[in-house]
Specification:
Porin; mainly beta; 3 helices; 18-stranded antiparallel barrel; 23 strands; globular; single chain
């Protein structure tokens, strides 16, 4: 860019292209002045939510050490207060599934490749305004039958929003409108849905107060976006409305402890549970405690749901825990972990109450990459062991038995579908899975991983036609 216009960094190209009127507008907005000094303590890091990355420290030439740095901070005026960041992702993922969802899914055998690419542009108009655009493309060669839109979406807008940030006493206020990704807490209830080709996004508005340290309060009103086969035709789901508030803060009296507190509301037409199909109005109140200290790490969450399902009342709940201890002084720094969930189901399908928990927009997969079960009407434990074979190569082994929480309710397949023939009967044991996962952070840009999962159903699901199966996946992800 500078070769085509040597004076670009001094802002002359901007004057030549935009003219005096645009420069006057930038001046009125306070975008043409000297940018605030940035810390040069270290380089920014790549993040899952790419719009959270701040590459303005690359104003310091000493920090520009990566071949992709010319894309991370592209100044568009003389002071660099108006700048552009470009980035993206390329991912190739092979999957082989035999007897998915304990043999209750279709097709019985599926071997395919998932190819996805993301490209984004993040335009910063000074310290207070920005515009973010991200395009996504996904293909699924080899898929048996027609791939779902979450796997095949030729080209579409994944994110497109405008944002204004205003300084306030003790923090700042952020206002954002448009299509955007959202992920809160540990992604149990609101996530980006990472494993499929097309990540989850929402259309709507979001506001946040961002205080010192880890203190933050978010509020939003959105509709989920439904991917569609084709080009630039994704639209929001008019049958669903999602709103809420999410707060996070550190607990000063207990070092290492942080807490979340949240309210989430969902309105959904034609919601389907084992009890039937009706309009769902659901409210979720929850809290999460998490942190690390002296080798221990913990992530404990509880939520209660109420509302209406047709003429029935909703009364549902969940309690989840991820606990671990790392032996940093031992070879391979092993971490012993225990994950456990208790997620309510419906004890009586014929009364005027729905007890099935709705996980809203959870991370997928939830329990393993095989994506066997939705987090509804479940009891499970998952002891696991992670070892660091090298500082960048880790191996995780886990075992995960699952039971119904309520015997009368159905077993729910992802994302939240009652499996035919699985309600009622006798016995709660659903089945078990054993998983092995490998992750190698080869470079700052390249991650290579793989997983193998073997699963067997319990007697109750065998009565519904279930059988043993396995899932194998390997992937390479390149980000820039």
């Amino acid at each position: 860019m500078s070769a085509a216009c040597p004076a670009f960094r001094r802002g002359r190209c901007l004057r030549r292209l935009a003219g005096p009127a645009l420069l006057a507008l930038l001046g009125l907005l306070g975008l043409g002045g000297t940018a605030a000094a940035q810390s040069s303590a270290g380089r920014p890091a790549y993040e899952s939510l790419r719009f959270n990355e701040d590459w303005s420290p690359l104003r310091d030439p000493a920090l520009r050490t990566d071949p992709f740095d010319p894309l991370k901070w592209i100044p568009l005026n003389g002071t660099g207060s108006v700048y552009l960041t470009l980035g993206g992702e390329l991912r190739a993922r092979y999957e082989s599934a035999r007897a998915p969802v304990f043999g209750l899914g279709a097709p019985r055998r599926n071997d395919y490749t998932l190819l996805r690419s993301f490209l984004f542009a993040d335009l910063h108009l000074g310290p207070y305004a920005r515009a973010f655009l991200e395009l996504a493309s996904g293909f699924a060669p080899g898929w048996a039958g027609t791939p779902p839109p979450t796997q095949k979406d030729e080209l579409d807008i994944l994110q497109a929003f405008g944002e204004v940030t205003l300084p306030t006493a003790g923090g700042q206020i952020m206002l954002r409108g448009g299509r955007q990704e959202m992920s809160f807490g540990s992604s149990r209830l609101v996530s980006v849905r990472e494993s499929p080709n097309i990540r989850r996004a929402f259309d709507g508005v979001r506001a946040a107060w961002i205080g010192a340290g880890d203190t933050r309060i978010d509020a939003f009103l959105v509709r989920p976006v439904s991917p569609q086969l084709g080009n630039f035709n994704d639209s929001n789901d008019r049958t669903q409305l999602f709103w809420g508030a999410y707060a996070t803060t550190a607990i000063p009296a207990l070092p290492g402890l942080k807490a979340d507190l949240y309210y989430l509301g969902l309105e959904r037409d034609e919601a389907r549970f084992a009890q039937g199909t009706a309009t769902e109005h659901r409210h979720t109140l929850g809290t999460r405690l998490f942190g690390k200290r002296s080798g221990f790490d913990w992530n404990v969450e509880a939520a209660y749901q109420f509302g209406s399902f047709g003429t029935a009342d909703i009364r549902a709940w969940t309690v989840s825990a991820n606990l671990g201890y790392s032996f940093a002084d031992l070879p391979f720094s092993p971490r012993l972990g225990l994950n456990a969930d208790a997620i309510s189901g419906d004890r009586n399908l014929r009364d005027n109450r729905l007890g099935t928990f709705n996980p809203l927009f959870p991370k997928l997969p939830y329990f393993s990459e095989a994506n066997l079960a939705a987090p509804a009407n479940l009891l499970d434990i998952q002891p696991n062991l992670t070892v660091s074979l090298t500082p960048k190569l880790s191996l995780t082994l886990g075992w995960n038995p699952l039971w119904k929480q309520a015997e009368a309710d159905a077993f729910y397949a992802p994302p939240l579908s009652p499996v035919r023939g699985s309600a009622g009967g006798t016995g709660r044991f659903i089945g078990q899975q054993t998983s092995l996962a490998l992750s190698w952070s080869a470079t700052e840009h390249l991650t290579i991983g793989g997983t193998y999962v073997h699963y067997t159903p319990g007697e109750r699901l065998k009565q519904a036609g279930a059988g043993s199966g396995e899932f194998l996946a390997g992937w390479a992800q390149f980000i820039f």
